[in-house]
Design a protein that fits this description.
Elements lengths: L4 E8 L9 E8 L2 E6 L8 H7 L3 H4 L9 H12 L1 E4 L2 H10 L7 E3 H8 L10 H7 L12 H22 L5 H12 L18 H7 L1 H14 L3 H10 L4
Helix pairs in contact: 5-7, 6-7, 9-10, 10-11
C-alpha cells in the first residue's frame, strides 16, 4: 500500500516558534480537504494580519484548536501517515505547541534545495516554486491555508517527478522514504539571498570572507531557529 500523504499548511499568530500559535489549519489527505479557523490563546500580530487577512475579530467566536475535533482527527492521521509541508520545521513547531506530534514528514523546501543540483533556482519559497515550475492553478489566493495547500500538493508532484527522473528504477514507496530521509536532515544552503554577499555561493564567500560567516553563525545561533543556516555555516567553516 502506498504511504498516505497529508498536505498541510498553518496560518499562525506570528513567527515566534515558542510563543505564537495556530489560528487556521488546512490539510488534505486523499481527496478530503479540511479548512478551519480557531481562536488562538495569544493575539494575532499586526504582521500576521497583514499577510493572512485574518484578524482577531474574525476568530473571536471560534473554538480553540486544543481539544477540538479537528485536533483529534489530525493527531490520529499523523500517527499513521506522512506530513508534507513547506518549511516543515515551522509547521511542526506550531503543531507541537498545540500538543500534536509529527513522527514522519516531508519538507518540500529541503527537497527543492536538494534536487536543485545545478543551483538554478534563485529562491525556494512556495509561491516562487509555483511559478518557477509553471504549476498551473487558477483562483489560488496566496497566504490562505487552503490556497497554499493546493500549491503545496502541485509543487510536491513536480518534485516527485524530478526525483523519479533521477532514479527511474526506484518505486514510489522507496522514493517517499528517501524524501523523508532528506527532510529529516539539515540541508546545505548553497547561495546567499540576503546581505552583502547576496547572489554569491556560500562556498565562495567562505574562501574570501570567512569572518562574515563566523559573524552570521553567531547571529543564527543566538536566534536558534534556523537549523539549515547553522548547519550550512558550520559546514563551510569546517566545524562539522
Amino acid at each position: 500500500m502506498k504511504d498516505k500523504l497529508i498536505f498541510l499548511d498553518t496560518e499562525t499568530t506570528g513567527n515566534d516558534l515558542e510563543k505564537d500559535r495556530l489560528m487556521q489549519v488546512c490539510y488534505k489527505i486523499d481527496d478530503k480537504l479540511t479548512v478551519k479557523n480557531f481562536k488562538p490563546p495569544v493575539p494575532i500580530s499586526i504582521k500576521a494580519m497583514s499577510i493572512t487577512n485574518i484578524t482577531n475579530k474574525m476568530v473571536e467566536n471560534e473554538e480553540p484548536f486544543v481539544d477540538s475535533e479537528t485536533s483529534k482527527e489530525l493527531s490520529d492521521l499523523l500517527k499513521e501517515n506522512i506530513l508534507v509541508a513547506h518549511n516543515a520545521k515551522f509547521d511542526i513547531a506550531m503543531l507541537n505547541n498545540e500538543g500534536l506530534n509529527v513522527p514522519q514528514y516531508i519538507c518540500t523546501l529541503r527537497l527543492a534545495r536538494y534536487l536543485d543540483e545545478k543551483q538554478e533556482i534563485p529562491e525556494y519559497n512556495l509561491q516562487f516554486l509555483r511559478y518557477y515550475y509553471d504549476v498551473d492553478l487558477e483562483n489560488i489566493v496566496a497566504h490562505s491555508a487552503d490556497g497554499d495547500v493546493k500549491v503545496l500538493e502541485a509543487v510536491f508532484g513536480h518534485l516527485y517527478k524530478i526525483a523519479k527522473a533521477k532514479a527511474p528504477d526506484t518505486d514510489y514507496e522507496d522514493i517517499i522514504k528517501r524524501m523523508v530521509d532528506i527532510s529529516s536532515k539539515p540541508s546545505i544552503i548553497k547561495k546567499f539571498v540576503f546581505g552583502k554577499h547576496i547572489g554569491s555561493l556560500v562556498e565562495d564567500v567562505a574562501k574570501i570572507d570567512a569572518g562574515y560567516l563566523e559573524w552570521l553563525l553567531k547571529q543564527k545561533e543566538i536566534e536558534g531557529t534556523d537549523e539549515d543556516w547553522i548547519y550550512t555555516l558550520k559546514f563551510y567553516l569546517n566545524k562539522i
